[in-house]
Design a protein that fits this description.
With 495 residues, this protein is an alpha/beta fold. The protein has 18 helices and 22 strands.
Length: 495
C-alpha cells in the first residue's frame, strides 16, 4: 500500500477520543438509494460499517463525487478514518433481443450467431464475436445467472451450436457466461477505465476489479491507479482460481464474489474455494472481503435467517478481514438493522471460546525477512506478557499489515501521519487506525504510543503494550524494531 501525503489537522486527531470498535473483522456496506444521504451514512457507521462500497454498475460520476463528499463529511464528524471502495462494473456479456420470453427445452439444439435479427426458440444474436472465436467443443455456456445451461457441440467463424443441458425460459438481453473459456477480454472496459480515473481523482481508497481472469488484469489496473488507490481483485471466475497465486501476488487485496463464482462453478465447490482463498491470501498478507448474499433476506425482512447468520459466522471464524453487505444496505428496507446484525454476529463469534484456537490453527510460518520475523515475535511477546495492545508505526501500511497477518489476540493500533494510509487500513482485520505525527526520536515514539493506547481506550495504567516500527523512523517497509513499555498514569510511559 503506497500512501500519498495530504494536509492533516493533527491537533484535533491528537486530542479527541475516537470511536472504538470492539470487533476485529470489518464491515463493508454498499451505498445506494436507501442509504445515500449524510444521515444514513452516519447511521450505518454508528451501526458498525467501517468501509463504504460504491457500485459503479449503478452510479454516475457526479453521484460518486457526492457520495465521496458525504462520506468524508461523516468521517470528519466521527473523527475516524473511513475507507471508500469503488467497485468497477467490468464487461457485461449479454445475448441480443428475443421475440418474447421463450421456452428452451432440455436436449434442444440452440444456435448463437452474428445475425442481429430478433431471436426465437432456435437461435439468438450474440454481440460478442470474441466468444465465438474463443470457445471449443465441450465448453459450457451459462445463461441468465445459471437458470439455463448449454454445452458447445460445434462452432464456426460466425456461430456456435450448443445442446441445452438445463432448459427454461429465455428472454432478451440476458447475461451469458463461459466458465470453461478463457476470453480475450481485459477486465476493464472503456467505461471502467473512465470510472477508475474519476474515482482516483475524487480520492477513493480501494478499487475492486471485476471479471479478473489473469494476473495481467490486475497489473493493468495497478498501472492505471498509479499508486493512488489499492487494487482489490474480485475472484468470480474459474480462470481466476486457476491463476490464484499469481493474482494474489499482484493484488493489494481480494474479494470473494460468491454470486458470480457460484454461477460459473458448481455451488458445492464455493465453500471450499472460500476457505482456500482466505488461507492463501492470509499467507501472502493480503486482506480478503467475503461478499454476496450474506444477509440477503434482510433486503425485505427485519431479521436474517439462521443459515445467513451461520454464513457470516463462518467467514468470521475463518479469519476474513471483512464481510460485505450489497443490496441489503443499498436498496433494502432495513439497512441499519443489517449492519447491526452483522456487527452483533461478529462480536459474538470473536468472543467464542474456540475462536482464537481456530484462528491460530490457520497461521502460516513467517517469511524469512526481518520485518516478518519482528511481526511474528511481536504476537508471541504480546501473548506471553498478556499485553493490552500492539502499536505499529507505519508510513505505507506494510508494518500494520504484517501485524494483522499474525492475527494476534490483542488489538492493533496503526499509527500513521498519512490520511490515505489510515483509510486503506480501515478494511484490514483487527486494525484501529490513528492519525499522528511521526515521532521525533525513540523516546518520543514510545511515549506517544503509550499516550495513544491510553487515550483511545485500549490500555490502562500498569498494562504493557508492544510497539513495532522501522528504524530509522519514517523509512518505508523497514520494520526492524520491537519495544515493550508500561503505560503509566494518564498514558505516560514507565520503565
Amino acid at each position: 500500500m503506497i500512501g500519498r501525503s495530504v494536509s492533516l489537522t493533527l491537533a484535533k486527531t491528537e486530542n479527541r477520543h475516537h470511536m472504538k470498535r470492539t470487533r476485529r473483522v470489518k464491515i463493508v456496506a454498499t451505498l445506494g438509494p436507501a442509504t445515500d444521504s449524510v444521515d444514513m451514512i452516519k447511521s450505518l457507521f454508528d451501526a458498525g460499517a467501517d468501509v463504504f462500497r460504491i457500485n459503479m454498475s449503478h452510479t454516475e460520476h457526479e453521484d460518486m463525487r457526492e457520495l465521496q463528499q458525504r462520506i468524508r463529511k461523516v468521517e470528519a464528524e466521527v473523527d475516524r478514518p473511513i475507507g471508500i471502495l469503488c467497485d468497477l462494473q467490468g464487461p457485461k456479456l449479454r445475448i441480443g433481443d428475443m421475440e418474447k420470453k421463450t421456452k428452451i427445452k432440455k436436449g434442444d439444439m440452440f444456435r448463437f450467431d452474428l445475425d442481429e435479427t430478433i431471436g426465437d426458440k432456435t437461435r439468438v444474436y450474440l454481440p460478442h464475436k470474441e466468444i465465438i472465436e474463443s470457445v471449443t467443443v465441450g465448453d459450457k455456456l451459462i445463461l441468465d445467472d445459471g437458470k439455463l445451461s448449454m454445452v458447445v457441440i460445434e462452432h464456426g467463424v460466425d456461430y456456435i451450436n450448443a445442446t441445452v443441458l438445463v432448459g427454461g425460459k429465455l428472454s432478451k438481453r440476458k447475461g451469458i457466461s463461459l466458465p470453461d473459456t478463457l476470453l480475450p477480454f481485459s477486465a476493464m472496459t472503456d467505461k471502467d477505465r473512465a470510472d477508475l480515473e474519476f474515482a482516483i481523482g475524487v480520492g477513493v481508497d480501494w478499487i475492486a476489479l471485476s471479471f479478473v481472469q489473469r494476473a495481467s488484469d490486475v497489473i493493468e489496473a495497478r498501472q492505471l491507479a498509479g499508486g493512488k488507490a489499492s487494487i482489490m481483485a474480485k475472484i468470480e471466475k474459474p480462470s481466476a482460481i486457476a491463476e490464484l497465486d499469481a493474482i494474489i501476488e499482484e493484488s493489494d487485496g481480494l474479494m470473494i464474489a460468491r454470486g458470480d463464482l457460484g454461477v460459473e462453478m458448481p455451488l458445492e465447490q464455493v465453500p471450499g474455494l472460500q476457505k482456500r482463498i482466505l488461507r492463501s491470501a492470509r499467507q501472502a498478507g493480503k486482506p480478503v472481503v467475503v461478499a454476496t448474499q450474506m444477509l440477503e433476506s434482510m433486503i425485505e425482512a427485519p431479521v436474517p435467517t439462521r443459515a445467513e447468520v451461520s454464513d457470516v459466522a463462518t467467514a468470521v471464524f475463518e479469519g476474513a478481514d471483512a464481510v460485505m453487505l450489497s443490496a441489503e444496505s443499498a436498496v433494502g428496507d432495513y439497512p441499519v438493522e443489517a449492519v447491526e446484525t452483522m456487527d452483533k454476529v461478529a462480536i459474538e463469534v470473536e468472543q467464542d471460546r474456540y475462536y482464537n484456537t481456530i484462528i491460530r490453527a490457520q497461521s502460516t510460518p513467517a517469511e524469512a525477512t526481518s520485518a516478518d520475523a519482528i511481526s511474528a515475535a511481536c504476537r508471541s511477546i504480546a501473548d506471553t506478557l498478556d499485553a493490552a495492545a500492539i502499536l505499529s508505526y507505519t508510513g505505507t501500511g506494510s508494518t500494520a499489515l504484517r501485524a494483522a497477518r499474525e492475527r494476534p489476540r490483542q488489538p492493533i493500533l496503526a499509527l500513521t501521519p498519512v490520511a490515505d494510509v489510515s483509510r486503506r487500513l480501515a478494511i484490514i482485520w483487527g486494525i484501529h487506525c490513528v492519525l499522528t505525527k511521526d515521532p521525533t526520536d525513540l523516546d518520543d515514539m514510545v511515549d506517544r504510543a503509550c499516550r495513544i493506547a491510553y487515550r483511545e481506550g485500549f490500555a490502562r495504567p500498569g498494562q504493557r503494550v508492544v510497539i513495532t516500527a522501522g528504524v530509522p523512523l519514517g523509512t518505508p517497509g523497514a520494520t526492524n524494531m520491537l519495544r515493550v513499555a508500561y503505560v503509566g498514569g494518564k498514558g505516560k510511559t514507565t520503565i
